[in-house]
Design a protein that fits this description.
The chain is 49% helix and 7% strand. Strand 4, helix 4 (102-117) and strand 5 (121-125) form a beta-alpha-beta unit. It has helices at residues 17-25, 47-66, 78-89, 102-117, 147-156, 194-199, 204-225, 238-242, 248-256, 263-281, 304-312, 318-330, 335-348, 353-363, 371-380, 395-402, 407-412, 425-442, and strands at residues 2-7, 28-35, 71-75, 91-97, 121-125. The structure holds flavin-adenine dinucleotide (FAD). Flavin-adenine dinucleotide (FAD) binds next to helix 8, helix 10, helix 13 and helix 15. Belongs to the DNA photolyase family. Its cofactor is FAD. Keywords: Chromophore, FAD, Flavoprotein.
Length: 443
């Protein structure tokens, strides 16, 4: 008898409850990944994410092979592909870790019912979030809209479970699959991924090494220096969590059992949980304002040249240009700079947050369908527990405060001072605040 484990945002062997359940069943295992770009509502991966995903999956394939198994790759709508592989493998059980986006949940719920109808055992598990969205409710039974009480409520629930051991053997029957290289996930003409290769080693092994290194070294300065982009005090774990190379349970346990001061870090993990909580209850997070009054915002016609200058890091505002070039080069941007560049787009260039969200979606290696739109709406002021619209980050003051010696700007955009700024910060700030009056009037 064979168990099928369907991997999704959980490209790891350690602390993988679905894989663990299959191993505990003590039968043969087939591990499957389905590249589903066809099911309705599934958002196609951005370019940088595809790069990461390719390498992470390749590494996982090697790790599975070293335990005697095969990672079966198939492409197509999951609703058709998964039952096909169940038949090909002769599987009598299917296990997966749960997803929390609207279209993903619909696919999984339908599949669960169909497979069960065919007599297949199906079980799903919590692998990607410490506190599943429906388990955290206000006294009135509604979802949380403000972070602090949300996180307080989470911390009052039973503590996150200990991570599960990885299975030693993954033997199973041979099942036909596709070759990863035929999926065309890597950029070729042009190959723009040199900076990504320089900066990152995707995969579970490197993820675990980075977790150890962070807690052993950088975490000591996290609370003091996490807002300074040149310092490198943050964990850089976001792509690891995005792709599930590390589970949040593993990160949590390693953090709480380390000697490092981890209070601030745990609360950032809490923001990740809150973003997914919000997406679960508001599946249109990437396309609709969470606060409906924002629908009244009078966005001017899109100024393509301004959007283009922002994307290329050619605005003449040094901290903005440095961030946008770091993003393009490495697939990553420091959190403080993400907030500044996002605020500049929305509140100085008066460009709809959705255009910025799309660009980050395409260029971030950690882009995920909760954190990216959630944070864009937070900066824009249209979202959950958002920064008020009238809080406009001043990129010059932010640079003085968080990049006082100019190291970050020197590294990424030393020439930006010589570019004529594309807008006047004070004038555009005033125009943005005037436009915001329409939202205020709408309620
Ligand atoms: P650390 O400071 O070490 O934090 C630890 C972990 O907590 C992170 O790895 C991440 O998983 C989580 N985390 C931290 N801050 C946040 C936050 N504000 N919201 C949600 N989770 C958080 N993060 C993503 O993972 N994916 C995105 O697509 C994404 N898009 C963003 C867009 C904008 C406009 C902004 C302002 C922020 C965005 N963030 C996103 C949040 C944050 O910038 C990154 O998680 C963080 O910079 C990652 O660096 P780190 O791993 O070193 O963070």
């Amino acid at each position: 008898m064979t168990s099928l484990v369907w991997l999704r945002d959980d490209l790891r062997l350690a602390d993988n409850p679905a894989l663990r359940a299959a191993a505990d069943r003590g039968e043969e295992i087939v591990v499957l990944f389905v590249l589903d770009e066809e099911s309705p509502g599934i958002r196609p991966l951005g370019g940088a994410a595809r790069w990461w995903f390719h390498h992470s999956l390749a590494e996982l394939g090697e790790r599975i092979a070293s335990r005697g198994g095969t990672l079966v790759l198939r492409r197509g709508p999951a609703a058709a592909v998964v039952p096909e592989v169940v038949r090909d493998a002769g599987a009598t059980a299917v296990y997966w870790n749960r997803r929390y986006g609207g279209p993903e949940r619909e696919i999984d719920t339908d599949l669960k019912a169909r497979l069960r109808g065919d007599g297949v055992e199906v079980a799903s598990f919590a692998g990607s979030l410490l506190f599943e969205p429906w388990t955290v409710k206000t006294g009135a039974g509604t979802p949380y809209g403000v972070f602090t009480p949300f996180w307080r409520a989470c911390r009052q629930l039973p503590a996150p479970r200990a991570p599960l051991a990885e299975p030693r053997s993954l033997d199973g029957p041979a099942v036909d699959g596709e070759d990863l290289d035929t999926w065309g996930l890597l950029p070729t003409r042009p190959d723009w991924a040199a900076g990504l290769r320089e900066r990152w080693t995707p995969g579970e092994r490197a993820a675990r090494a980075r977790l150890r290194e962070f807690l052993g070294e950088d975490a000591a300065t996290y609370d003091r220096a996490r807002d300074e982009p040149a310092v490198g005090a943050t964990s850089l774990l976001s792509p690891r969590l995005r792709w599930g190379e590390l589970s949040p349970f593993t990160v949590w346990e390693a953090a709480v059992s380390s000697d490092a001061p981890i209070g601030g870090f745990l609360s950032e993990i809490g923001w990740r949980e809150f973003a997914w909580h919000t997406l679960f209850h508001f599946p249109d997070l990437a396309t609709s304002n969470l606060r409906p009054a924002f629908d009244a915002f009078p966005w001017p016609p899109l100024a393509e040249d301004r959007l283009d200058a922002w994307q290329r890091g050619q605005t003449g505002v040094p901290l903005v240009d440095a961030g946008m070039r770091e993003l393009w080069h490495t697939g990553f941007m420091h959190n403080r700079v993400r907030m500044v560049t996002a605020s500049f787009l929305v509140k100085n260039l008066l460009i709809d947050w959705r255009r910025g969200e799309e660009w980050f979606w395409d260029t971030l290696v950690d882009a995920d369908s909760a954190s990216n739109p959630f944070n864009w709406q937070w900066v824009a002021g249209s979202g959950a527990d958002a920064a008020p619209y009238f809080r406009v980050f001043n990129p010059e003051l932010q640079a003085k405060k968080f990049d006082g010696d100019g190291r970050y700007i020197d590294e990424w955009a030393p020439d930006s001072m010589d570019i004529e700024p594309i807008v006047d910060l004070g004038e555009t700030r005033r125009a943005a605040l005037a436009a915001y009056e329409a939202v205020r009037a709408a309620g």
